[in-house]
Specification:
Strand order of the largest sheet of chain A: 2-1-6-5-4-3
Structural class of chain A: alpha+beta
Strand content of chain A: 25-35%
Organism (chain A): Pseudolabrys taiwanensis
CATH class of chain A: Alpha Beta
Strand content of chain B: 25-35%
GO biological process, one term (chain A): 3-phenylpropionate catabolic process
Number of helices of chain B: 13
Helix content of chain B: 25-40%
Radius of gyration of chain A: 16 Å
GO molecular function, one term (chain A): dioxygenase activity
Protein name (chain A): Aromatic-ring-hydroxylating dioxygenase
Family (chain A): Belongs to the bacterial ring-hydroxylating dioxygenase beta subunit family.
Order of helices and strands of chain A: HHHEEHEEEEE
Oligomer: heterodimer
Largest interface: A-B, 46 and 52 residues
CATH architecture of chain A: Roll
Number of helices of chain A: 4
Radius of gyration of chain B: 23 Å
């Protein structure tokens, strides 16, 4: 996982293959385990700050800065079922690699993304942050609950659920390897699901 | 013996001059905005003709079920203990409670959560608590669940109707079966399995989605952001990706739209694709994991990899079966009317199954890629369309501005040809399919269908 990047993940997607799918499927199985809970306030406060910062960058639409909180090779995953399912065999609401995430941002800025023109305004609220160790020293899992208020097309709606951030330490920095977004309405029809959650 | 009962009737059927509301080149705004017209559609269209209900791969085993809708009627589509597919009304015959509140599962019987009436998945009432409290014979078939009089499948696609006078499903589908067959037979065994869905909804009438389903005119503008995104890395001499072939003069290309009768139509972009294994994959836009799996498949399969990759590519045909089914790319899209101004559009994903042509690892690789190619359009394309549908619904609030046009190509017979089966072919951006399907809509709205439900003894 710490091998040097062979290809530019902003341009090509050689990294999303069998190994990463397996890492993600395994990484999100049985991770919310009390025995693995990190009690050290210094550690938990650090990850809380990272989540708050990510939320702030999203709410301000500072997507270039936002992309920097992710590992070069990352996945942004919004499952379409309550148990997450197996993304190799089941459609997700979204299962994006870096390039597709950058596609999404590029699309917003073309001026022709009608679903975001005018754009949504959002407020991300994050709470119940818990940090879990994993079998790998340089990988931490962070669970949090979120409530996103989205103002769009003259009305405000709420999107709610929990995040599972898989962080990886690279060069002394904790970066997001996978951001999983479990919407409580993940298997229901969604109106204009075009923002980054 | 079947016991037939009268179908539902509106208390005060409004009278409309359908010939005034549906004209040769335009329709009245009320088709999209009038709650009374919507109420009539729920019997005349969603009841009076064949309606898509579910896919057989969702209920592969006996006693499997999924819940579904026939218009606004909640249904349980189940394969009973003998393997027969039934579409039961999800409505207790006692007090009207829905019996089943789960999306899917496996059960031989459904017990009402309110008073405990228990029904077999054939619809038969098996028992009620304290039956000695009734003078009525609870074995009377009138207490069995209502179910659709007719349920038929075409190659896995399950349809139902309340209209006993409908022709057999295959006859009603007619020439639209050809592109459906092609869609299935890309995988030599023709087997696809539904695997969850991209589920969308919008605040607009259901026909706005059906109007859009073969519309080649909107692509270059409604999806401009997607087409620009799909081609953001192209060098100017390279092959353009995705739907970029709509740029320039799309009506001069070989792609076409075809109206096949009974409200069905398809838009065929396959003539734009190079006719070779790998031709479809060559224009596929950029998707998560595509380089990894393409490289892996080429290493393992050599030249056969091209055909495997085409199975992960998005089939360039939009096949639309009136009133609520659309095969788009690799999705099975179902339109579900919720109210006159609310619609669910559920894009069921499909994966391919091993039929002996490939090995399991190849199938797994194709599917890992095929999941990601399917997620692209709902995320980056359809959101713009449904936003435009919502904004049509807003615009149609202008009461005095009455007409909605579908007149592209109208009065230009040189743009069309009709074959011996009566299929009408036109250029890809033509609105001929709208003008034709809305005639079928009008015919059904003017008809007085003899709707029935069935209760098996």
């Amino acid at each position: 996982m710490n091998a040097p990047v062979k290809h530019d993940p902003a341009r090509s997607s050689y990294y999303l293959g069998d190994d990463l799918y397996q890492e993600i499927v395994d990484g999100y199985a049985d991770w919310q385990n009390d025995a693995l809970l990190v009690e050290d306030r210094n550690v938990t406060a650090h990850f809380e700050r990272l989540l708050y910062r990510e939320a702030r960058l999203l709410d301000r639409g500072l997507y270039e800065e936002w992309l920097k909180v992710f590992a070069p090779e990352f996945v942004y995953w919004v499952p379409g079922t309550a148990d997450g399912g197996d993304p190799r065999r089941e459609i997700a609401v979204t299962f994006d690699d870096r390039r597709r995430t950058e596609d999404r941002i590029f699309r917003f800025r073309t001026g022709y993304a009608w679903s975001q023109s005018p754009p949504s305004r959002t407020v991300h609220l994050i709470g119940n942050v818990e940090v879990f160790r994993t079998a790998r020293e340089r990988v931490m899992m962070v669970r949090s609950n979120f409530s996103i208020s989205e103002f769009w097309s003259g009305a405000t709606r709420t999107l709610t659920g929990s995040y599972g951030h898989r962080f990886i330490e690279i060069g002394g920095q904790w970066l997001i390897r996978c951001k999983r977004v479990d919407l409580i309405e993940c298997d229901q029809c969604l109106r204009n699901p075009s923002i980054v959650l | 013996m079947l016991e037939k009962v009268p179908g539902p009737r509106l208390e005060m059927p409004p009278t409309y001059d359908w010939d005034d509301l549906v004209q040769a080149d335009r329709v009245h705004r009320t088709l999209y905005t009038d709650p009374n017209i919507f109420a009539l559609e729920m019997t005349h269209i969603f009841g009076g003709t064949w309606v898509y209900l579910a896919h057989e791969s969702q209920i592969p085993n006996n006693n499997d079920f999924v819940t579904a809708k026939l218009g606004l009627r909640p249904l349980i589509v189940t394969r009973d203990a003998n393997g027969k597919i039934r579409a039961l009304y999800n409505r207790c015959t006692h007090r009207g409670t829905t019996l089943c509140r789960w999306d899917k599962g496996n059960t031989k019987s459904f017990q009402c959560p309110y008073h405990g009436w228990n029904f077999l998945n054939t619809g038969q009432l098996r028992g009620v608590p304290w039956p000695d409290g009734y003078t009525a014979d609870i074995r009377d078939p009138k207490f069995n669940l209502a179910q659709l009089e007719r349920v038929e499948s075409y190659r896995g696609f399950i349809f139902g109707t309340l209209n006993p006078d409908m022709p057999p499903l295959i006859e009603w589908l007619g020439p639209i079966t050809k592109p459906i067959d092609d869609w299935l037979d890309r995988n030599p065994g023709g087997k696809v399995v539904v695997c969850e869905a991209n589920r969308l909804k919008y605040k607009g009438n259901w026909k706005l989605a059906y109007d859009n389903s073969s519309d080649g005119y909107h692509v270059i503008y409604s999806h401009r952001s997607l087409i620009e995104t799909e081609n953001r890395f192209n060098d100017p001499t390279g092959k353009e990706k995705g739907m970029a072939f709509y740029k320039g003069s799309p009506d001069k290309l070989e792609m076409y739209v075809a109206y096949t009768g009974n409200g069905h139509h398809f838009k065929d972009k396959r003539p734009n694709i190079e006719k070779r294994a790998g031709g479809l994959w060559a224009i596929e836009s950029l998707h998560p994991g595509m380089e990894y799996y393409a490289e892996k498949l080429r290493k393992r399969l050599g030249p056969r990899a091209d055909a495997a990759l085409d199975l992960a590519g998005s089939e360039p045909v939009n096949i639309n079966v009136f009133p609520n089914l659309s095969l788009l790319g690799n999705h099975i899209q179902v339109f579900e009317p919720v109210s006159v101004s609310e619609t669910n559009a559920v894009w069921y994903g499909t994966r391919v199954e091993d039929d002996g042509t490939w090995d399991q690892e190849t199938i797994d690789d194709i599917n890992a890629l095929r999941m990601r190619t399917q997620e692209g359009f709902p995320n980056l394309g359809e959101v713009d369309d449904i936003t435009n549908f919502e904004q049509i619904q807003v615009g149609l609030g202008c009461l005095e501005d009455e007409w909605v046009y579908m007149n592209r190509g109208f009065g230009m017979p040189e743009r069309f040809r009709t074959d011996e089966q009566g299929v009408i072919y036109g250029p890809a951006t033509d609105e001929v399919f709208m003008r034709e399907y809305i005639k079928e809509w009008k015919r059904l709205m003017q008809a007085d269908p003899n709707l029935i439900v069935r209760r098996d003894p």
